[in-house]
């Protein structure tokens, strides 16, 4: 298998907000929505753009504008330039920015084939890793407080082809909606359009009637002493047999599957089912993954009553009793678990069974997004240890392909952390009217089986 290539690092910069526009020190408390993500691996996101110019042009015209617009953006998204501070228990972690803080920006050059890098077909997972920036290492102050950087950026130039904006950030500072707000704001600043709204940091709007903060803090304190604050890199040998690929569900496939699920549900249940693009995409991919796992003999001995789990997050900004604005910056997610028996997933109508279970879980959110929230972390630990959990990353609703810096929509967006987490990555397609993209990273032997099963399922819809 081909080894990962390297990039040539051209320069390093420390990007800060413009001086004098933010108080010299500014702290931001963590809410109970943020605390579970203290335990999460860093997010790794890549945006590839067509930009067929020479390296001289890119360095002298594009790079300075990217640096300036990033600085101006950090004025409003100051937590990303700050650090997560984790004092010894029982003190609560928080985010702190002061005027000496900065974001690490690496500029690199790659001579690999740009079109090969952004292709959908199966390839070594390590091909994308050189485009992911390294987060600066955490440090410990004399009083035992850990200081953890939150964001790093890398711009990789492909001479006469394009560029890649790579971002690594810690989930505790922002969920997918907040991160995409940051990226689109940065893009808007570069275009000088100013069309993106300012972020909201009003933590007072987040109410905690169920005492979730104390529950999650206790969970965190149990982990904190042994937690690896610098995790994010993975030894090369752990990824040596893994490949990644992007699969496409066209709009006609999605519409037919929605219709099929709705009809079969209506025939057996008079209640209304939540059927969406997200639901049917998750269902089809989940069932195809389980079938590929069964076919190559991975997993537990056969037991039809064994439960398999799908986990996804649901945005809560408009689902809380006191609604939060769409511009709320931070985390505001409910963690959802969907259990389905092995026998139901592997049956002839397994996709319909999976879609019903996912749709019902989303429907349950109408009765209260925080119902059972106190068990989010304990449930995660329990089902992940059983080895029958698959997670979903991303959503078509995030509209990541609308991140336009003035060069048009991204040619490709990749979520690199799925190489390690094993999550299913879902987004809208670049042409927003033409379906969805599904990104996966699997051992090569299993990817071949999944590819065949997924393709056959699409033909049968």
């Amino acid at each position: 298998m081909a080894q990962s290539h390297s990039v040539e690092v051209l320069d390093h910069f420390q990007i800060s907000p413009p001086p004098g526009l933010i108080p010299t020190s500014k702290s931001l408390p963590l809410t109970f929505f943020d605390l579970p993500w203290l335990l999460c691996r860093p997010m790794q996101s890549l945006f590839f753009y067509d930009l067929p110019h020479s390296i001289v042009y890119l360095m002298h015209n594009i790079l300075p504008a990217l640096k300036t617009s990033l600085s101006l953006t950090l004025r409003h998204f100051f937590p990303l330039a700050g650090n997560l501070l984790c004092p010894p228990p029982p003190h609560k972690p928080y985010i702190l920015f002061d005027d000496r803080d900065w974001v690490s920006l690496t500029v690199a050059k790659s001579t690999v084939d740009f079109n090969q890098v952004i292709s959908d077909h199966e390839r070594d997972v390590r091909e994308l890793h050189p485009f992911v920036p390294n987060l600066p290492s955490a440090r410990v102050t004399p009083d035992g407080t850990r200081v953890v950087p939150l964001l790093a950026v890398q711009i990789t130039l492909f001479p006469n082809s394009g560029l890649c904006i790579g971002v690594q950030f810690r989930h505790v500072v922002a969920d997918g909606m907040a991160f995409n707000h940051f990226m689109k704001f940065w893009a808007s600043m570069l275009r000088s359009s100013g069309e993106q709204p300012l972020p909201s940091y009003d933590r007072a709007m987040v109410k905690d009637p169920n005492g979730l903060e104390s529950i999650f803090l206790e969970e965190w304190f149990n982990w904190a002493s042994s937690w690896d604050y610098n995790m994010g890199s993975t030894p090369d040998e752990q990824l040596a047999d893994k490949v990644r690929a992007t699969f496409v569900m066209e709009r006609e496939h999605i519409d037919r599957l929605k219709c099929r699920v709705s009809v079969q549900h209506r025939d057996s249940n008079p209640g209304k089912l939540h059927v969406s693009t997200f639901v049917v995409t998750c269902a089809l991919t989940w069932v195809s993954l389980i079938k590929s796992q069964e076919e190559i003999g991975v997993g537990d001995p056969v037991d039809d009553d064994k439960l398999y789990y799908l986990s996804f997050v649901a945005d809560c900004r408009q689902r809380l009793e006191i609604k939060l604005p769409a511009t709320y910056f931070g985390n505001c997610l409910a963690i959802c678990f969907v259990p389905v028996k092995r026998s139901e997933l592997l049956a002839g109508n397994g996709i319909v069974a999976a879609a019903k279970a996912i749709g019902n879980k989303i429907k349950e959110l109408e009765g209260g997004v925080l119902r059972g929230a106190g068990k989010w972390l304990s449930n995660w630990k329990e089902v992940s240890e059983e080895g029958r959990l698959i997670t979903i990353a991303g959503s078509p609703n995030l509209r990541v392909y609308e991140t336009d810096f003035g060069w048009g929509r991204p040619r490709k967006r990749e979520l690199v952390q799925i190489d390690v987490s094993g999550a299913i990555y879902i987004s809208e397609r670049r042409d927003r009217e033409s379906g969805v993209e599904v990104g996966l990273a699997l051992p090569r032997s299993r990817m071949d089986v999944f590819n065949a099963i997924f393709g056959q399922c699409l033909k049968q819809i």
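The chain has a mean pLDDT of 93. DSSP finds eleven helices and 18 strands in the chain.
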